[in-house]
Amino acid sequence: MVQIPNPPAPAPPAPKRSVPTSADVARLAGVSRATVSYVLNNARAVRISEPTRRRVREAARELGYVPHAAARSLRAGHSRMVLMPAPAFPVGPLYSRFINELQAALSLLDYTVVQHGTIGVHDDEAARAWAELRPVAVLVPGSGLGPRGVEVLKRSGARAVVTLGPETVEGAHALLMDHDVVGHSAGAHLFDTGRRRIGVVVPGERGLDTFSAPRLAGVRAAVRGTDATVTELPLAHDEEAAASLARRWRDLGLDAVFAYNDEYAMLLMRALQDEGIRIPEETAVVGADDLMLGRLLRPRLSTVHLELPSGQELADLVDRAVRDPSASPEAHKVLGARTIRRDST
Amino acid sequence: MVQIPNPPAPAPPAPKRSVPTSADVARLAGVSRATVSYVLNNARAVRISEPTRRRVREAARELGYVPHAAARSLRAGHSRMVLMPAPAFPVGPLYSRFINELQAALSLLDYTVVQHGTIGVHDDEAARAWAELRPVAVLVPGSGLGPRGVEVLKRSGARAVVTLGPETVEGAHALLMDHDVVGHSAGAHLFDTGRRRIGVVVPGERGLDTFSAPRLAGVRAAVRGTDATVTELPLAHDEEAAASLARRWRDLGLDAVFAYNDEYAMLLMRALQDEGIRIPEETAVVGADDLMLGRLLRPRLSTVHLELPSGQELADLVDRAVRDPSASPEAHKVLGARTIRRDST
DNA sequence: TTGAAAGCGCTACCAT
DNA sequence: ATGGTAGCGCTTTCAA
């Protein structure tokens, strides 16, 4: 290492070259842009000599050339981008796994999956924001998209719009996930095990009503026409709220509760136990989602196990829809639910 | 309504109009494309008469015109897209909230946040995939991005690359989240409360080693030079694995365990209790992440509370970096940790 | 106040 | 086998 005394003022760090384009690659390789495109895209319709290919690839590597997706899809008239809104609240392991499966499956079909952070933007405005990206398909969980939004997306070239939610939307494919069945399964289970005065926890957090409302309705439906009663129990996800509910528990005179999901079940069960209420003797508790934590509680938590569609299925639906956009929208009921009895009921 | 007998073969449903462009809007409004652009972008430098503005807006509305983001950013030479990889494993409420804050803050600064579903794609390949979208900034949690990846992104015009992880990466800004401090806090707490033979749970799930390794190292560092010992305890997130570990617990001769996080702590604590081991008398247990569930366990779980940076802070860092890309990369230590003592230690 | 036109990076058609 | 080039949708300068 040579010692350099008094180096001059520090040189500006690497004079920010501008972004290399295919023209730069062509220049460096001594060929035309067309040839570059052919080589880098492995165009089969055209024969390029092996030496030329090498020169082009070498030049691209040397410049650190990365094709410009926007230019490409502008030229092509379409993209392979599948867009979905990023969830606005913490999602459990179930949904996480579903998303990952989906991404993997779509990647294999050569789509690019992108979650768009749409926050505080409502309905049609969100649809417009998505449409600007000209995705080839849009997947929307929940019930945030109306027929107008679907129309905007289709008018902007989306070849498939799929909703994952409680109801079908005009013009869109639907994976019907009616959480009704979850409540129904829980309600039926509680009724079958002799419970007649059933409470149903309804979380305070907004954004969850998409799920909680149908789950409640499902319980109601399950015991309709019987002598059982259903009581709605609003509950925030916080210890104090749970304790307060537990304190007036005996006054409520309930012999069972469907706690919305396993986490709320854990919260409520703890509060009830602290209040000295015996589970399941005095009150049966059933959760939902079949999380690990339910098995770790004492008594072990009975829970409604959900069967989500596989990511693969949805990916296939998307691909089919993209290939044949004229096909009329499919609607699939995809949510299965069965109650797993453990020790809390 | 005229009755038409024997209608011919069902007409193709709504002859798929093609996507309206600003030229279509111009035509319908009877103006030039330039005028359309001025009106729809509220160009201040140019005065357009009110009647014209109305005609243009009306035409745009009628056609359902949505500008084409790719064309726009192609012309502009840059986009306002901030890209981050979508997490490949279930993330807890902490991280979820962080992402949401970040998205909200960036939206306010007029950026579009997009999570790119990069799955099964490694390192530089991932960086290339991201670079194709020409994001103005890239945020990468974890340690999946090397100096080469950073270089690819910068060469493709990314004005800011920020890593959120254990170490700085050449050329990128860094939010240093060294989980070291988490283990350190737990280790110190256990030591201070008189424990000397400390176990540290290391989750079996891959993808988590980014966090678990430094957490383990932190515990080691905390008791270095003392008479305390640290024992690594590999553990899968499953009941059987926990039970098996609990069965050989007494042989291990440990008097404390840092369980990686609250969920693993719950898993292990349950197994230990089922084995008849008294907590905290025989073994102290401390988790991390300060989740609600820790407060619901009995004994209440001591835990390491993490202080993540606020989404706002990161958004500001990104914005600063985008505005002045020449500024040399900042590195901030942003992970705070303090142990909250409850009843399990 | 409005319009004509260039050009962003890329691909695919048509020549050579 | 390779090159020239039009044109995707948009913004912006320059002219009228």
Automatic annotation (TrEMBL), chains A, B:
Gene3D superfamilies: 3.40.50.2300, lambda repressor-like DNA-binding domains. CDD domains: HTH_LacI, PBP1_LacI_sugar_binding-like. Residues 1-20 are annotated as: Disordered. It comes from Streptomyces griseoincarnatus. Pfam families: LacI, Peripla_BP_3. Residues 1-15 have a biased composition (Pro residues). It comes from the Bacteria. InterPro entries: HTH_LacI, LacI/GalR-like_sensor, Lambda_DNA-bd_dom_sf, Peripla_BP_I. The keyword Kinase does not apply. Keywords: DNA-binding, Transcription, Transcription regulation. This is LacI family transcriptional regulator. Residues 20-76 form the HTH lacI-type domain.
